[in-house]
Specification:
Layout: E1 6-15, E2 22-32, E3 37-41, H1 48-55, E4 63-68, E5 71-72, H2 78-88, E6 89-93, H3 104-114, H4 121-130, H5 146-158, E7 164-168, H6 176-193, E8 196-200, H7 204-207, E9 212-217, E10 220-226, H8 230-243
Parallel strand pairs: 3-8, 3-9, 6-7, 7-8
Antiparallel strand pairs: 1-2, 1-4, 4-5, 9-10
Helix pairs in contact: 3-4, 3-5, 4-5, 5-6
Length: 244
């Protein structure tokens, strides 16, 4: 069997201490298959964002094991963890985090520059073409719409050919029409190119673009849906929120 792109086993994560101790993840075990698109949903405080941060190596766990394509995170130094995130993972957030003074081409190629490698125009132009912005390569963020800026952010995440793309509310700052365009792009990256995507979202419409939705409540998985629709996701979320 193919190694999962991301594997968590018995993962626990707490914040604070004493009377202010908060358990964000409780004995979580879950796999994310290579070439799959998974949405993570749950009520506020359910642990979904902590799951993404820990799975992506952005935050250390208290106990358990996390592996990215077979590489155990626990055994990595901070430097090795930084290199893994830089070279093997991609990140897209609600805020686009583009550098205002740089063009779309320069923003997209930034991870390679930070790695000490001069980006070739062709590889940057190719990734901009993949996100539908070949004709906007010379534009700065202020000259682009919100949806176009998020596409540049996705291009920047893809430039290193990541094994996993982690997305935290990637359409949260976009209107509904632009959100659909960005989600269609993510869906195409999975369906056409085999990209692995793990996405945290609160939006049933966004989750419906995924292969499956994993629901979180009280720091642990609380069920999942395969081949989700917006209606089935919304109904399950209503049930979860009523139980909280």
């Amino acid at each position: 069997m193919q190694e999962p792109a991301v594997r968590l086993r018995s993962v626990c994560k707490t914040y604070g201490a004493g009377g202010s101790l908060v358990t964000a993840l409780r004995d979580v075990s879950i796999d994310f298959a290579a070439g799959s698109f998974t949405a993570i949903m749950g009520p506020s405080g359910s642990g979904k964002s902590t799951l993404l941060q820990c799975a992506a190596g952005l935050d250390r766990i208290d106990s358990g094991r996390i592996a990215i394509a077979g590489t155990e995170l626990a055994g990595l130094s901070e430097t090795e963890l930084t290199l893994l995130r830089r070279d093997r993972l991609g990140f897209v957030f609600q805020s686009f985090n583009l550098v205002p003074a740089l063009t779309a081409r320069q923003n997209a190629g930034l991870p390679l520059q930070l790695a000490g490698r001069r980006p070739r125009d062709k590889e940057v132009d190719d990734v901009l073409d993949r996100v539908g912005l070949a004709d906007r390569a010379g534009h700065r963020p202020s000259e682009l719409s919100g949806g176009q800026q998020q596409r540049v952010a996705i291009a920047r995440a893809l430039i290193t050919k990541p094994e996993v793309l982690f997305a935290d509310e990637p359409t949260g700052a976009l209107d509904s029409g632009t959100s659909r365009d960005v989600l269609r792009l993510l869906r195409e990256l999975v369906g056409n190119e085999g990209q692995t995507i793990v996405m945290v979202t609160h939006d049933p419409m966004a989750a419906a673009h995924a292969d499956r939705v994993v629901f979180f409540a009280d720091g642990r998985p609380a069920g999942e849906l395969a081949d989700p629709t917006a209606e089935s996701v919304a109904a399950r979320m209503t049930s979860l929120e009523s139980a909280c």
